[in-house]
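Long-time lurker. I teach an intro course on protein structure, and each term I like to show students one example going from raw sequence to a predicted 3D structure in token notation. This year I'd like something fresh instead of my usual example. Would anyone be willing to generate the tokens for the chain below so I can use it in lecture? Attribution to the forum is fine with me.
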Amino acid sequence: MSLKELPLFSQVDNSTTGTKRDALTVSQLTSQIKGKLEPQFADVWIKGEISNYRPASSGHAYFSLKDASACISAAIFGWGARNKKNPRQAFDLHDGLEVICHGKVTIYPPRGSYQITIDSIEPLGAGALQLAFEQLKAKLATEGLFEQKKKRRLPSYPNTLAVITSPSGAAIKDMLNILKRRAPHINIVVVPALVQGDGAAAQIIKALELVNKHKLGQIVVLARGGGSIEDLWCFNDEELARAISRSGIPTISAVGHEIDFTISDFVADIRAPTPSAAAEIVSGYWVDSQRQIKDSLERIKISVLRNFVAKKQLISHISARLISPKDKLREHAQRCDELYSRIERGIRLRLESRRASLEKFLGKLDALSPLKVLERGYSIVCDTSSEKRVVKSASQVTQGQELEVKFYDGAKKVLAL
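-- Reply from a regular --
Happy to contribute to a lecture. Here you go:
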């Protein structure tokens, strides 16, 4: 196509040569190129390395895509808002990141340059969601939100539990079944919230603030069943992570299955691999205490029975050795009779011995008795005074004195001549 065939062609007088040439304005030329170029590159996939990244306060982002031998300007509009709404656009762009983009080639008239306007962008290598996850994880770790010293110990014997979850989900049903079986006395407050999709993170944050404000539980559990990374993405929200860190009540993150990890798992005080596991953690001390009490009761029962058997055996042994009081009395009575007989026999023997000794002494005494002498014909002469002195000599007697002569069989009074 010649310049004359262009619809906006106009003739320009060249005063120096006196000839007329066809010419376009810059805007006209740019518009012509725009009209020809853009329709041909309205659906383009392009990959390259980001350089000269420049985020704008408006939320748009500008950068260059380059490879080893070429470079093209790129723009992505509404990146900040899109970053929050679309999980797959939740990663941060930076220089050196290799990406694959979809968009269209456009002309930017103020500079007369062409660029690619991007409507979708993903990192090469790691997926977009994984990259966003790793970037946020690294950021929060640097700020210290994951430090172990910030983790709080759960109450050992909680009486109230706040669960932030979907009230119609399988997660809360599993938790209720387990808690009813293991610790039925725990009061459970279910705080409803979306756990998937747009607005879920904001609802969970609001529910968490509500639990803290009204002290709805001694422990708060964020619970959701398994799902894809997109389904669980609300638990990778930065604001939610900070809300969990601010919580004055110990938190348990029970999101997905055991292989699933979210940012809330790293920020929470305890990470439970599943909602069911969270219920087991909360009721763990209660179950252990019940088991200990049961074991203690069983040990006490065994001890009491063992002691009872021992006492029974002792009683049987003592009973076998125990003598009836009546028999004991009879035994003592018999013993008394025996002792009485022995005493009686001892006394009798002793009396007989004494009698024999006495008779012996009496015999000797009798042999020495004056009466025995008198029986042989001797007599005793005494005066008749009150003292009845024995007259041993004739000189003691006067003529006509009254004397008393004692014979063995009596006495007679006589007068001395």
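Some talking points for your students: The CA atoms of residues 254 and 272 lie 5 Å apart. The first helix runs from residue 26 to 40.
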